[in-house]
Structures are given as C-alpha cells and as structure tokens.
Amino acid sequence: MGMMINSDQSDDDVIGTINTTPLVDIMLVLLIIFLITVPVVTHTIPVKLPEEKNTPYATTPQNIQLSVNKTGDIFWNEQHVANKETLLARLQVEAQKRPQPEVHIRGDQLTHYEAIDQVISTTQQAGIGKIAFVTTPPSSP
C-alpha cells in the first residue's frame, strides 16, 4: 500500500496563468507575412500625375475677349465682327505685339461647335499662342 507524502500539493492543480506562447507565435507569423506582402502591394509604375490649380479669372486690358453667341455671331470685346477675314486681320495685328495678348473665348452653351472651331482656327492662323476658354464655375450645393 502506498502512502501520500505532502498531500497539500497534487498534480491536478489548475494553472492560473495564460500561456502566451501560441499568441506570440501567431503574431510573429503575421508580422513576417506583412513584411513580405507590403513591398509587393506598394510596387506600382512611377507616374507623375498632373497637378490641378484653380486660378481666378482676371481680365486685363491686353486680353482679347472673343464671344460667340448661339447664332454663331462673333464679338470682339462686345463689338460685332462682320466676318472671319476681319477677325483674322485684327488678330494678326495683335499677334505682332510683344508680349502677345491672350485670347479668351466665351461661347454660348447653345453655340454649334463649328462656330467655336472657326474662331479657334482663325486665332491659330493669326499666330496667337495662348487661347483660353471662359466658363462659369459650378454653383455651390
């Protein structure tokens, strides 16, 4: 018959501490996975994207305002231009100035594209280097 010595300590006692070894193992595996996959995810083709800038419209005396209404009539600083040849002659005079003036084209929403295209091609034919379009900014919601 056996005897029990030190009966107050048995092998069936509950361990009151948390075993953190599996937790540390899982965290190390996740760390290694992230270290391997992050450089693959961030690898892209280097492209320099254009920067958008919103400059306020400023009317200066040297700018030429060309307006085209919905019927295709052309106006130079609010004065009617009779035909394309007159417009070309006036633009050629302006193209000789240094610095060259900017041409700002204002087209009605209902204007046919051909009328705007005629103004653009006439401006380019005259030798003006800078053409801009004037639009209305969108309304705030």
TrEMBL record:
Keyword Membrane set for record: yes
UniProt keyword list: Cell inner membrane, Cell membrane, Membrane, Protein transport, Transmembrane, Transmembrane helix, Transport
Species this chain originates from: Acinetobacter venetianus (strain ATCC 31012 / DSM 23050 / BCRC 14357 / CCUG 45561 / CIP 110063 / KCTC 2702 / LMG 19082 / RAG-1)
Keyword Cell inner membrane assigned: yes
Compartments where located: Cell inner membrane; Cell membrane
Protein name: Biopolymer transporter ExbD
Topological relation to the membrane, as annotated: Single-pass type II membrane protein
A biological process from GO: protein transport
Similarity comment: Belongs to the ExbD/TolR family.
GO cellular component: a single term: plasma membrane
Function of the protein: Involved in the TonB-dependent energy-dependent transport of various receptor-bound substrates.
Subunit structure: The accessory proteins ExbB and ExbD seem to form a complex with TonB.
One MF term in the entry's GO annotations: transmembrane transporter activity
Transmembrane segments: 26-45
